[in-house]
Amino acid sequence: MKIGIFGTGMAGKTLAEKLFALEYDVMIGTRDIAKTLYNADGDIYGGPPFKTWIRERPDIKLGTFADAAIHGELLINAVSGTGTIPALKKAGKSNLRGKVLIDISNPLDFSKGMPPPLFVSNTDSLGEQIQQEFPKVKVVKTLNTMNAYLMANPGLVPGDHNVFLCGNDEDAKAVVKKMLKKFGWKEKLMIDLGDISGARSTEQMLPVWLRLWGKLQHPMFNFNVVVGRPL
Amino acid sequence: MKIGIFGTGMAGKTLAEKLFALEYDVMIGTRDIAKTLYNADGDIYGGPPFKTWIRERPDIKLGTFADAAIHGELLINAVSGTGTIPALKKAGKSNLRGKVLIDISNPLDFSKGMPPPLFVSNTDSLGEQIQQEFPKVKVVKTLNTMNAYLMANPGLVPGDHNVFLCGNDEDAKAVVKKMLKKFGWKEKLMIDLGDISGARSTEQMLPVWLRLWGKLQHPMFNFNVVVGRPL
Questions:
Q1: Among residues A152, A143, A142, which one has the least CA distance to residue A20?
Q2: Do the Cβ atoms of B122 and A123 come within 8 Å?
């Protein structure tokens, strides 16, 4: 199956590598290929710059956002929150039409210092804004409540913990669940929160996620919803 | 020890009963005693009206918000989010001064239908608004991420799950932790999120809490933060 991933950051790279290992045909999309291949900055965890990373993985393709959108039967938005809508516009409405788009982004506004507030929240969400801007795309919000390594390798945190998903299209969610299963997520630990307005609730978990990160001084943790007997 | 609890709803009653069972001297405060004792509405879980409940528990005292503030060495705000600041103003700044106030409320706005949005969030919180309005009070935000029964009886949901707390005063948090321990919370499951601005993060967990409630059709669940090894 062909996958298009928007974004060359930690999440884009980690998911691309995992999907490639799972024998998907992966293309990463970026705004400006030349700029991406010129940039010499390493990643936040001390990894090499993207240009080195992609050179070491010659079978993972690199293209523009539009190239990746055309390539992918299944698409993943791994661009920053602020970059998401512009990136999807660059990808092109007609290239996105009818496809499943997994949105793992969070509406974090890093322009105001740390911790970043959300630039959309409470009565709206980034997931909903994408769905509204691209009504013909089947948006599924998932994986946004954890760090990139854990998304692709849930076993990195031992025991039971959850991945949330939501979206308006049931078949699209079924496709996404299949992919999550291949990543190692047990089906019983996937929590379907219903339609895309559920994105409000998972995006608003970022503030506590960020606070926990600050406290623990590392991002290898996740939430588990523990359920007791009804009253 | 003398406790003053503001609010006659599920949370106020449940905590009053638990604290009384733990041999605290408990007074519940309400805006209008006569009205509270006249109201014949039962509670949302099919329990009796407050007037019946309090008659069956003659050793739990009932007073005005000010009476409860004067009575309590330790205070608990269990009023609705919208009622919180008005209730505390009625309680009286001078009666609250210097005391520890446990705030378990959430800024839910029920005036706009279900699910309720938050009337303060993201860059501010109800916990912070209380602290700002009453700077001489030692506000500790806790217990607001679960239903009332679970607050007072964590064993109702089996296994490990967390209670968050935050506040500006370390000694006040130590007092609150002692009380939580008596409720049955293990110390290792209490997560101190730092100063009162942590209230933003736990209040913003309400949207996912409400969504999970809708999905499960009952409120007997809680969050557990599962931590793996650092990268």
A1: A152
A2: no
